[in-house]
Design brief:
Blueprint: H1 2-18, E1 28-29, E2 44-50, H2 57-60, H3 64-72, E3 74-75, H4 88-97, H5 101-104, E4 110-113, E5 118-121, H6 138-144, E6 149-152, E7 168-169, H7 178-189, E8 199-204, H8 206-214, H9 219-239, E9 246-251, E10 257-258, E11 264-266, E12 276-280, E13 285-289, H10 295-305, E14 310-314, E15 337-341, E16 346-348, E17 357-358, E18 373-376, E19 384-385, H11 394-401, H12 414-417
Parallel strand pairs: 2-8, 2-9, 3-19, 6-7, 6-8, 11-16
Antiparallel strand pairs: 1-7, 3-18, 4-5, 9-18, 10-17, 12-13, 13-15, 14-15
Helix pairs in contact: 7-9, 8-9
């Protein structure tokens, strides 16, 4: 009988496993799209993001391939400033739209929209709903001007953000190896001229995963950094025989810092969660009132507690340099009251602990939040180091390389990176 129960349990376990939804690794192709005749002679740009790849990781872990590429191209050696908050979804979408998070609408990985009375959540169906996204992503700018674009993962690429998807894209998953990614991009660039994408995005999650779990100084994080070092060299070597004018832009969305998971601040218990929606990102807490009349009473009550571990802001009074105040975000997605821990402590809900590695802090006060930027290819000058800049300025530079006209207001300015480009 005991043997039967064991076998039965194994059968049920196998059946249970087999019933889990399969990961969709199928490419999506939008039919009927081709490059306009004037696009055929334009160059190519591959925008690469390694999530959580802190600005100093290349030197810290001696990545010979990446260092060689950076030193021979354009390199922000002292880092690139992420937009606030220094979190994945807001910054990937800032890079691809040239807008601050409060302006494009993705103010966090998870946030509440009081007008829709809905939550946007990473990993949910909201990610594929284009109505959450403002701005015009670079792939949309390209497609609308007769240039085929492709995405091997990027925030917003699975949605109708800006009114269009890239011609070729994949639903997000983490099943592809670095060899798979090189093969896919090479296949795209070997398509006929009419079908070949001139703008491509490529994303790697590994460094961020290890940084969160083990911290930025761990062997696991070092190994992930070297994995990226090898993957990018494979990509460069794999595309070289094609003899195409390919420009590479390597970025990250934010950095990473080690925090003490036992030394944290608990979110104040006086917040009535029947009256307020609370979204805690550990590095800041956003509080949205269901009834706006409740905002000031809670603000005053929080101030009265005089907690020394965090600052309390009304959204309208949030520091202007961060472009994350009520005047920047009219739809209240940033919340009505914002709590920001002092230093690099984390704020947690009762009974929870933060991970070892965190990001999301003010990059002007916590330099470990700074991201990576370097670029190389025929459009870029060589052997030039540049000062730190904000990531919204990548958009106009890529548009300039691809000879795309920017058709809507953005926060980025071509003056920032235009000097790093060769004259046409």
């Amino acid at each position: 009988m005991k043997k039967f129960l064991v076998i039965g349990s194994l059968v049920l376990a196998v059946l249970g496993y087999s019933q889990k939804p399969a990961v969709d690794t199928t490419q999506v192709v939008i039919s009927g799209r081709t490059n306009a005749p004037e696009t055929l002679q334009k160059p190519y740009v591959i925008l690469i993001s390694a999530d959580g790849f802190r600005y100093d990781y290349m030197q810290k872990y001696n990545t010979k391939n990446l260092l060689n590429l950076a030193e021979n191209g354009i390199w922000a050696k002292n880092g690139m400033y992420p937009s606030y908050p220094s979190i994945t979804f807001p910054n990937h979408y800032s890079i691809i739209t040239g807008l601050y998070p409060s302006h494009h609408g993705l103010v966090d990985n998870i946030f509440y929209d009081p007008n829709r009375k809905e939550m946007y959540k990473i990993g949910s169906k909201t990610v594929t709903d284009g109505s959450w996204y403002g701005g015009l992503p670079l792939w949309g700018l390209a497609e609308k001007q007769g240039m085929v674009a492709a995405s091997l993962f990027w925030v917003g690429s699975e949605s109708e953000a800006g009114g269009t998807r890239p011609s070729y894209y994949y639903p997000y998953h983490e099943k592809f190896s670095d060899d798979d990614k090189v093969r896919i991009i090479k296949n795209w660039l070997q398509l006929s001229e009419e079908k070949r994408p001139h703008f491509i995005t490529l994303y790697f999650p590994e460094v961020d995963h290890e940084g969160h779990h083990y911290g930025p100084d761990a062997k696991q994080t070092e190994d992930a950094v070297h994995y990226i070092d090898g993957a990018i060299q494979k990509l460069v070597d794999g595309l070289k025989p094609l003899n195409l004018p390919i420009n590479f832009v390597f970025v990250s969305d934010h950095g990473m810092i080690k925090v003490d998971p036992k030394d944290y601040i608990t979110v104040p218990s006086i917040i009535d969660r029947n009256k307020f929606v609370v979204v805690n990102s550990n590095t800041f807490v956003r509080i949205t009132a269901k009834n706006e009349a409740d905002i000031l009473p809670l603000y005053k009550a929080l101030r009265k507690e005089k907690h020394e571990g965090y600052k309390i802001y009304l959204a309208k009074n949030f520091p202007g340099r961060l472009h994350y105040s009520k005047s920047d975000n009219k739809n209240r997605r940033i919340g009505d009251i914002i709590l920001v821990p002092n230093g690099t402590k984390a704020m947690v809900d009762p009974g929870r602990n933060p991970p070892v590695g965190k990001h999301g802090y003010n990059p002007y006060k916590v330099p470990e939040m700074k991201a990576t930027y370097f670029a190389w290819g025929p459009a870029f000058k060589q052997h030039q180091q540049i000062r730190p800049f904000v990531n919204i300025n990548i958009y106009p530079a890529i548009a300039e390389i691809l000879d795309l006209k920017i058709t809507a207001p953005i926060d980025g300015n071509i003056k920032v990176l235009g000097k790093t480009l060769n004259k046409k």
